[in-house]
Amino acid sequence: MDKLFLQVLKMSITSSYVILFVIVARIFLKKAPKFFSYALWFIVLFRLIAPFSFESIFSLIPFNTQTVPTNVVYSQISREIRSTGQVTNNSLSGPVAHTNGKPIQLWIELGEIVWLLGMLAILTYSFYTTVELYIKLQNAKHVSKNVYELTGLKTPFVFGITKPKIYLPAGLSNHEKSYIIKHEQTHIKRLDHLAKLLAFIVFSIHWFNPLVWLAFFLMTEDMELSCDESVIRELGSEVKKDYSTSLLMMSTGRRIIGASPLTFGEKNVRRRIINILNYKKPRFWVVVIATIAVLTVGFGLITNPRTVPSNSNAEKIQKAETWAEALKTRDGKSRYAIMSENMKEQFVAEQKKRSGEDWNYNIGGSSPWVVDYDIDIHRDTATITYHFADSDGVKYERTEIITFGRENNRLVIISAIEKIAEWDRVNYFAPNAKRAMEVYVEGLLESDYLKLLSLAHEAPFDPAGQDIWDTIKIIDVKVIREDIRENKACYELQLDIEDGGNSAFEKGISTRWLWLVKGEHGWYVEGFMTGGAPDASWWNSESIKK
Predict the structure, then answer these.
(1) What is the rounded CA–CA span in Å between residue 369 and residue 391?
(2) Gap between the Cα atoms of 457 and 428, Å rounded
(3) What is residue 219's predicted lDDT score, i.e. its pLDDT?
(4) Sheet containing 473-484, strands listed edge to edge, beginning at the edge strand earlier in sequence
(5) CB environment 365-376: b (16+ within 10 A), e (fewer)
(6) How far apart are CA 180 and CA 26, in angstroms?
(7) Helices (H) and strands (E) in the chain, counts
(8) Fewest Cβ atoms closer than 10 Å to its Cβ: which of 58, 254, 366, 454?
């Protein structure tokens, strides 16, 4: 549900710009038939409904919200503890909230609840008014075809979906009826009753956006104006006065027909009368220009800005191939040659840690080994998918994302983030509670997702976990207090966070509680909590032995 809510927000953001553009475009289309202004609102409907679009260099949208993957945003704000290598045991009740700073996930969940409640309220009220009106209309008298009369109505309207009916106030003269019926029949012929229903549903989804409210009412207004013009074109300009008089009489003492999306009442009669009296058959060149303008604007608003590929893709592909081939041959010397100076320092430090001062360029492992790889270039990054195999014939995949940059006027690799796989994970059992705490703290300081998972046996594996931890920088962890018992322990830790990165962590001092359990094979982490120390029920409960 979080993903859906975020997707709706994305569409609403893009559509807000489209709505503002359409409002401005209506000003320039003032002399053109209202049909063109009405048509532009269907572009808004598309942007509010469709979670996708296609790219074009002619796009009028200044930004591309569709390129922001909702699943990434969701993983950053909704997984709280789990995605960052922190875990909570399924037996613990209630969500874990962050105590330091604003809990992003809490705000998202609150917004989601408000959104759903608002949408439910609008739809429920509309359903109620529709049913109420339907009951009243059962007493209507059939006049002809799909036309009905009902005593007590103040304004005519259309009601229905598949078989829409026209309802008129009782007592109208035949002269008045002819114009009103013609107007409503035009609505039905153009399928405006379905367009209105669709617009209302979309409005209900995006009710939190004030620009969508404005768009809904302006669309309804343009629908009525264009329908009036259609009637005048068909009947001739000589009926404008009589037609306007009929509208004016219908407006006297009128009331709005509830909140049913299935009704068409007389709206903004003053504006309609002025438009009718001022209406003149448009010149051919006006129609041509308006058509071209609407089609051009429509195409520009319905498409997203195109992602222009870099001119250096060939060079990037070559660098990515060099990088991947190095792992295949287990020779990191070629990698070293295309690294940034900072990456070179990191590489040397890692190799020294691995092999001592007499380090070498050997990388990777003897098994499983790289059989082949695929490369996908996107802007300043390359996604490399390695295909591994071992001596038993088992095949694996591992994905690495490298980032390009320029240093000393040459293209280099400035970072490499590996998306680990489930088979990389092992479970670690510490000989005592203190050692379990120390290893976990090492993982926090090193942003080592695998090390954290190795102790947190209940934490589900998440391929995005390492990506998130690569953005986190914790510079210090202090033990504030400890509570060690026979089979369980709890450490209160104070974290000094320099950069929370793409996680729920926030910069500054933060307190977390590390819950430890002793199993058959040793100590492991049951939870890394934000809510405080465990209560008596946890201490007294018997954990699953491992």
Answers:
(1) 9
(2) 8
(3) 93
(4) 473-484, 488-499, 508-518, 523-529
(5) eeebbbeebebe
(6) 27
(7) 18, 15
(8) 366
pLDDT at residue 314 in the model: 85
What DSSP string describes 419-448? E--GGG-----BSSHHHHHHHHHHHHHHT-
Check residue 213 and give its pLDDT: 93
Domain 313-419 class? alpha beta
Give the span between the Cα atoms of 147 and 157, in whole angstroms: 10
Per-position b or e across 179-194, b if 16+ CB within 10 A of its CB:
bbbbbbbbbbebebbe
| Confidence (pLDDT) at 416 | 87
User: What crossing angle do the helices spanning 104-136 and 192-205 adopt, rounded to 10°?
Assistant: 150
| CA gap 459, 519 in Å, rounded | 16
423-540 has the same fold as 313-419: yes
Using DSSP's 3-state secondary structure scheme, residue 522 falls into coil
Q: Give 241: exposed, middle or buried? Use CB within 10 Å, 0-12, 13-18, 19+.
A: exposed
**Total residues belonging to the chain:** 546
Per DSSP, 369 falls in state E
With left for phi above 0 and alpha for psi between -120 and 50, is residue 501 left, alpha or beta?
left
* Distance of alpha carbon 189 from alpha carbon 191, whole angstroms: 5
Q: 525: closest CA among 407, 444, 414, 433?
A: 433
The torsion of the CA quartet 220, 221, 222, 224, rounded to 10 degrees, works out to 90
What's the pLDDT tens digit per position in 430-484? 889 999 999 999 989 988 888 888 888 777 777 667 778 888 999 999 999 999 9
Place of tokens 């000393």: 408
Read off φ and ψ for residue 401, nearest 5 degrees. -110, 120
Per-residue confidence band for 238, with pLDDT thresholds at 50, 70 and 90: confident
- Are the C-beta atoms of residues 411 and 386 closer than 8 Å to each other? no
Q: What is d(CA 358, CA 381) in angstroms, rounded to the nearest whole number?
A: 33
Mean pLDDT of 486-509: 91
**Model confidence at 423: pLDDT above 70:** no
From the list 224, 235, 137, 257, the residue with the least C-alpha distance to 182 is: 235
| Contact (CB, 8 A) for 65 and 51 | no
Give the residue from 116, 137, 115 showing the smallest Cα distance to 262.
137
Provide the pLDDT confidence category of residue 59 given band limits of 50, 70 and 90: confident
Q: What's the angle, vertex CA 44, arms to CA 109 and CA 282, rounded to 5?
A: 165
State the distance between the two ends of the chain, measured CA to CA, in whole angstroms: 34
DSSP reduced 3-state for 451: helix
Pairing of strands 488-499, 508-518: antiparallel
Mean pLDDT of the chain: 82
Distance of CA 429 to the CA centre of its chain: 40
Residue pointed to by tokens 């549900």: 1
Distance CA 504, CA 105 (A): 8
**CATH code of domain 423-540:** 3.10.450.50
Residue with structure tokens 């407006």?
251
